[in-house]
Every structure is written in C-alpha cells, then in structure tokens.
Design goal:
The protein is α/β, with parallel strands linked by helices and 360 residues long. It has helices spanning 15-23, 49-57, 121-153, 158-172, 185-188, 213-223, 233-240, 244-253, 260-272, 296-303, 305-309, 319-325, 328-333; strands spanning 3-8, 40-45, 63-64, 67-72, 99-105, 199-204, 229-231, 274-280, 285-291, 311-318, 338-340, 350-356. The longest helix is centred in the middle third of the chain and has 33 residues, at 121-153. Mean pLDDT is 87; it is low at 27-37 and 83-87.
C-alpha cells in the first residue's frame, strides 16, 4: 500500500526546510509567510538495512524499498477554512493523505518571522487544529442535510445519519475526530475528513534542545497522549549534505541515534498500524507495506490483485533465520522454511514467496 503524509503547520515553522531535508528536494524555504505556493511532493525510500543483506545473498539483486510520499502544504493561518491566507484550497491537498504531520515551531529566533508577535506552541497547535475542524464541519454540513433527506425514504441510512450527527457534535465542541475512537470510521470514510486522519506532532526544536529532556517533556504534555517527534529542521538540512558515516557522527554528537526522517517514518508506521514484509530473489529484493494483522492473501494483494484472488499458499521464512542459514537452500534444509495458508497473519520479519493460480 502507498503511504502518504501531509506536512502542515503555520507559516515559518520550518515545514519547507524539513521537507527539503526529508526528501532531498530543493524547494523555496524563505523567511516570509507563504513561501510554499503549490503543494510539493517528495517520494522517500524507507531505510531498511535488511534489504542490503538480502541483496548480497541473492547475487546483488536490485533493491526496491518501501516508500513514503511527503506532501508539503502551504502554511495555514487562522481563518484558512474560510479562505484566509492562501485559503481552504490547500486543505484539500491533504484529504488523500494517510496521516498528517503537524510541524510546530518550538524554537526562538528573532530573525525568523512568526505570524504572531507572541510565539506560543500551544496556540499554534490550537490554530491548526481549529482550521482542520472548521473545514470538516463545512464538509459534513454539506453532506448531512442530503443524507437526512435520503434516510427518510431509506431507513438503512439511519445509522450513517446517527454517525454524522455524532461527528458534528464532536466537531462543534472543538474536538477532532481522532480524539474519539468510538466513531464508526466506515460511515465517514468517503468524506475524507481531515481530523479523522491520524496526526503526528513534529516539534521543530533547536540543536541544543534535541537532548533537553525537560524541554521535550514540557512540549509532550501539550499533545498528550500523542507521542510527538522532535527534530531540528536546520540540523536535518545539514545532515542531508553529509555521507552516512559523517551524518551518524553528527547525530551522535547531539545525542541522537536516528535522523528525523527515520523517526517520522517509525511514528507513521506505529500511528497507522503498519508493518513491512519482504520478498527476495535474484531479480529483486523488496519491502512491501501492509497493515498489522494482514493475512497472507491480503499481503499478496499488495503486490497484485490477482495474487490475492488466486492465492494458494505462502512460503515463509523468518528474515533472521534466513540470514543465519546463509542461503534459502540452507534455510530449507534446516527446516526454517514453512508453508502457510489463507489464515496466516503476516509478521514484520517474514520473507515470503506467494503461490497463486489465476484462471483465465
């Protein structure tokens, strides 16, 4: 499955700088509001050291990692849902994203403008969330009256009307849909409501604050129970220009083990309940993204719909068992390769070969 993350935030919080660092792009990142005019898209490979080892095992087969698409949205301001700033049109650009990464400015720099004279991370978060809520109310109100009329003639639509009203009450109370796990997501899926999408808070901090536990705890409380990601967009930009060894050394000097990209991807996978399984052979080694709990046929369907329809079985070996054995042949001889059926639930370290039959 394709994974896409919309990056939102107020102007001048470091969104475009972070986007450039994450994607290796070179979009304008300027010290004035609305430097981003059109949404920018970047496709990033998901770092996965397992693929390198599998490639070496299979005659240096080409590597195809899983990918994440980042979409950098123009800075939102209070009133965006009513057309303020660059307007509601930019909210539409994140409707098709799987998750939202809200970048929050958590650094002080008099040389970088802020939309308010008083810089307050909590206020910034509230402004963005309010605009997302107001945009959802507009979408919902347009649909609700229509469905209520249809439900008078078709009682089967009454549960949907009930869910719509439940959502409306939640939004009217200034609460996003993600705050209520009891909302029937299937009833509202076609509306592509913004606050129904999982959100990842990304605090853009200074280099020094990356290792400042007290500061990070203070910021975390603003978005509890969400688990935020802390990055320094300026540092991420510097890391991008370094070779991997130098980048790792610089990260370590700031007390960090992983780059902001890896942290954000991990957060996205965790928030969305995703995992990757692997396929390997002389033609290619590849990572595929599936929801946790996906069955073998569903995982096969990510490769091709025909694989799911004609699924027969899955030949599975644990990645660590395969590496320890040294080859697929040795893993089979050691009894580490097994055959699984339609009810098998995929595991993150599975290396799989699907067997299927598609009748003409």
């Amino acid at each position: 499955m394709a994974l896409s993350i919309g990056i939102v935030g107020l102007p001048n919080v470091g969104k475009s700088t972070l986007f450039n660092a994450l994607t290796g792009s070179n979009i304008l990142a300027a010290n004035y509001p609305f430097a981003t005019i059109e949404p920018n898209t970047g496709i990033v490979p998901v770092p996965d050291p397992r693929l390198d080892k599998l490639s070496a095992m299979y005659n240096n087969a080409p590597i195809k990692p899983a990918t994440v698409t980042f979409v950098d949205i123009a800075g939102l301001v209070a009133g965006a849902s009513q057309g303020e700033g660059l307007g509601n049109q930019f909210l539409a650009n994140i409707r098709t994203c799987n998750a939202i990464a809200q970048v929050v400015r958590a650094f002080e720099d008099p040389n970088v403008l802020h939309v308010d004279e008083q810089h307050d991370p909590q206020k910034d978060i509230d402004v963005i969330n309010t605009e997302l809520i107001l945009a959802d109310l507009q979408t919902l109100d347009k649909r609700l009256s229509k469905v209520e009329k249809e439900a008078r003639a078709n009682p089967k639509l009454q549960p949907i009307v009930a869910t719509y009203n439940q959502v409306k009450a939640l939004l009217d109370s200034d609460k996003p849909i993600w705050s209520d796990p009891n909302i029937d997501r299937e009833h509202i899926a076609d509306l592509q409501l913004l606050t129904a999408k999982p959100i990842i808070y990304v605090f853009n901090v200074t280099e020094d604050d990356l290792a400042n536990s007290a500061k990070k705890d203070e910021l975390s409380k603003l978005v509890a129970p969400s688990q935020p990601v802390f990055v320094c967009a300026k540092l991420e930009s510097e890391l991008h220009s370094l070779d991997p060894n130098d980048a790792a050394e610089m990260l370590e000097s700031y007390g960090q083990q992983e780059s902001g990209l890896i942290q954000l991807i991990h957060a996205a996978y965790q928030t969305l309940g995703l995992q990757s399984y692997l396929t390997a052979g002389d033609k290619e080694v590849r990572a595929w993204t599936v929801p946790k709990g996906a069955t073998a046929p569903q995982a096969a369907g990510v490769i091709h719909g025909d694989f799911e329809k004609g699924f027969i079985a899955a030949q599975v070996v644990d990645y660590n068992d395969l590496i320890d054995a040294g080859s697929e042949t040795a893993a089979k001889a050691a009894g580490k390769v097994r055959t699984e059926g339609k009810d098998y639930v995929m595991q993150p370290n599975d290396v799989v070969e699907f067997r299927f039959n598609v009748s003409k």
